[in-house]
Write a structure and sequence with these properties.
CATH topology of the largest domain: Spore Coat Polysaccharide Biosynthesis Protein SpsA, Chain A
Radius of gyration: 19 Å
Distance between the termini: 54 Å
Number of domains: 2
Largest sheet: 10 strands, mixed
CATH superfamily of the largest domain: Spore Coat Polysaccharide Biosynthesis Protein SpsA, Chain A
Helix content: 40-55%
Shape: globular
CATH architecture of the largest domain: Alpha-Beta Complex
């Protein structure tokens, strides 16, 4: 039966990491954590779960995650973020898949649901997110982009039904902080690709995106959390454009 390595990158994740590690202890033969010199209790918590805990300078999400994959002892890898949790259904599904020992796919797409402001959002444009996270590392790896990195493999890709639960933001303030970081990275990537925007698009993009997330994608059906999520998603889109223009003017 193939054994599974779970790989996670961390930096000051004491609020999330125990929940993540507890969700994979039944399926992982090893858990590899690559940490960017956390100053909180992340290391202590990881070591209490018996993880292989490595420290390394952070040179970007894709680079750090690929390094973690490269440290795995097994070919089959489940790549997780520290703020994600493997649901009971997904855990059983992965265990059953490995026990059959007849895997013909190179990787598997996994649906992910967002836990936001005390509930799992059922609409708001995040209901049907699919991510390739379980894969044979001999068949692929991380795409090297600045932000929103993904996994690509050669060969067939299956789909699982059990979900990952994403606890990405524990407050609106943290959501704003993360948005600032991600939009800066995204703007740098867009500038490198030669992408240009008209300044009028900064103001136009917000109402367009808000309408898409709140009305077309059903954020209104998620109540107040759906309203805030739609607002922040629209704000993020406008900031990516504004920051890209700012970088271009400085170069």
């Amino acid at each position: 039966m193939p054994e599974l390595s779970v790989v996670i990158i961390t930096f000051n994740e004491e609020q999330n990491i125990a929940r993540c590690l507890d969700s994979v202890k039944a399926i992982a033969s090893e858990i590899v954590v690559v940490d960017s010199f956390s100053s909180d209790k992340t290391a202590e918590i990881c070591k209490s779960f018996g993880c292989r805990f490595l420290t390394r300078k952070f040179n970007g999400y894709a680079d750090q995650k690929q390094f973690a994959v490269d440290q795995a002892a097994n070919d089959w890898v489940l790549s997780l973020d520290a703020d994600e949790v493997v649901s009971d259904e997904l855990s059983i599904e992965i265990q059953t898949l490995l026990q059959k020992n007849m895997i013909t796919n190179s990787g598997f797409m996994i649906p992910r649901s967002l836990f936001y402001m005390g509930r799992i959002l059922k609409y708001s444009g995040v209901r049907s997110e699919l991510l390739l996270r379980l894969f044979n590392r001999q068949k692929g790896g991380l795409t090297q982009v600045r932000v929103h990195e993904s996994i690509e493999v050669t060969g067939s890709i299956g789909r699982l039904s059990g979900k990952l639960i994403h606890y990405s933001y524990n407050s609106i303030s943290q959501h704003i902080q993360k948005t600032n970081i991600y939009t800066s990275l995204a703007a740098e990537g867009l500038k490198e690709k030669g992408k240009t925007f008209s300044k009028c698009w900064v103001s136009l993009k917000f109402p367009v995106n808000f309408f898409v997330f709140y009305i077309i994608r059903g954020g209104i059906l998620d109540g107040y959390p759906g309203l805030i999520w739609s607002f922040m998603a629209a704000f993020s889109g406008s900031m990516k454009v504004a920051k890209t223009i700012e970088l271009q003017e400085k170069s």
